[in-house]
Amino acid sequence: MQELADFFGWVGTTIEGRYRVDEVVGEGGFGVVYRGYHLGFDEAVAIKCLKLPTTMSTPQRETFLAAFIEEGRLLHRLSRASAGIVQALDVGASLSPTGVWTPYLVLEWLRGVPLNRDFEERRASGEPRRPLADAIALLAPAAMALDIAHRQGVAHRDVKPANLFLAEISDRPTLKVLDFGIAKVMSDFASTTQVMAETGNSVQAFTPQYGAPEQFNRSFGATGPWTDVFALALVLIEAASGRFALKGDDFVQLYVTATDRAHRPSLGYLGVPAPAAVEAVVQRALAVEPRERYRTAGEFWDALDRARKPTVPPSLYHNTALADTSPASPDQGIAPQAPIEAEPKTKRGAPDAHREDVARHPIRRPAQRIDRPPRVATPVADEPEIRLVHDAVRDTTSLSVPGLTPRTLAFDERGSLFVGFGMGVVLCLDLATRSPRWWQRVSSSVVCITVGAGWLAIGCGSGDIHLLNVSRRTIEKTIRGHSAAVRSMDMHRQAQTLVAGSDDKNVTLWSVPRGELLHHGMHPGRIRSVVFNGLGGLASAEDDETVRVWDAKLRPKRVLQIDGASARTLSSSPGGNYLAAGCDDGAIRLWDTAGWELKYRLIAHRMRVASMAFDPRGEIVVSGSSDGTVLVWEAASGRTLRVLGDYADAVECVAVSPDGRHVAASCTDGTVRVYRWSSAP
User: Fold this and answer.
1) HSE on the CB side for 633, CA within 13 Å?
2) Cystine design at 484: which of 17, 459, 503, 645 (Cβ 3.0–4.6 Å)?
């Protein structure tokens, strides 16, 4: 393999004293990509350095740098809105050791390969094709990310396999879009200066193999999001067929192919079986005239999804008053009400916590209102079977739903307990009457829930977060900002904000009433737990034996080390004076947040701590473990107060009611037990 040249001479040095440059990992027409190391954050980064003519004047450099920094800021904002866009960490310019003026962009480091290399390896192996459904699923995260930008009026202008990175996140590949804004700033620079021509250099701000007619010839109109739609359709054809969609060996031949109205690229021409409706959608995306195409990637992917799905008969809807004959889509917020099926089991009867729905909707857009009537929570009378058993002696209530396993619990201030089941069902239980109020089905497996300020947030295996208005019993917003399962959430009742952590390594902070992204942070690994810490900030944990503390804008403040174990669950006392971590070694670590000193390490359980909760006074901790025990502790001393439960199966989740009078625990045996305390334990 040919060694890549260090054009700038940065290897072995640091940029601005912050980024150590380790090696050249890529080179292209725009510049050189280095693997570097962020000395402040103590993690690997990618550093993209742009190649520009050395004869540029000082005013030209200043003009270019101002535009480049603005595009870097744009990329930063977009990457905070979508995990499908590579995260931008810094932008600037510096003089290299060889004296070359170097505009640079610092990005998150991704493990994986660009999609063009994946295509090449598949061709070399003799299996270049993918089933059409697999190709659509593969490109879905990129379509989602592009749609977020398109809805803000921002276009990429160089969508191609080399700019789609197949990153390994949580041991499964997902696409991230690279080089947002680079094509625009280089194109604008080339069109406003004669430096390139004078020095014999040229800049081509798009790749002809994936070029739209308006990029070859401006007489077709301006470039925009519709340009990305054209390129995305070409990449889709290539992903499914294993062959380039545009025929041609040079710029002129590709221009002719891209603009030939009589012979358009198609799935069928390259031997990909596709329904006529799907082929029609692709043909519209590849229309020669920009005004005839879909305006955004989201419109394109939604049309593709509708074309692939049969019409759902109204009889399949559980709530027939809301039935219609349009294609069923998870964009509606709630899936058609079909009979409940038994959830797959794993060892000890536990549900597979990492199981994803097989059928994934190919595009998940940012939070938005749906232009159909919101689905109303189904009255309990329509539920097939809910079993409630009350033990008057122990003052406990046991709840189960045959065929469903409870995963997650949350109490609200109005005397309700919400139970999330893995198969996409949420149940609301009235604590006063010990009877169910209503149940709600969502479009994916329920992984976590949290409640506050009249809202119930439902985090799903698909990466969606549904926001249900508890009073109206309707899902009014769906946040689609994660590309993998949402593992943990917490609601700030006063600020009406929601923090979420996902397998895609992202921590996101959202405004609940507006459904808008406020801030965004990133972990090296998939996130296990997030929590507001009561001091105006947040904390998060992953598998790397650390707990990270953030401020209210998700800027990193400190990293708490856990020796020999990883935190599986976090809980903060209401006053913010304690932060507790339940770990996979069965111990609970508790920090005093005044000085962030570890107060104690409590050997609490024989197996991993799955869930924890403080009482409203911050004096009591309840913990549940995979060893089947539910224990009650005194927070200040770590003294055991009582064993609340000792079950044959693992405890998945525990919760304490806001008034401190109820504790609930869910087990993998399919039951939820609700304990009532007449006084503090």
Assistant:
1) 28
2) 503
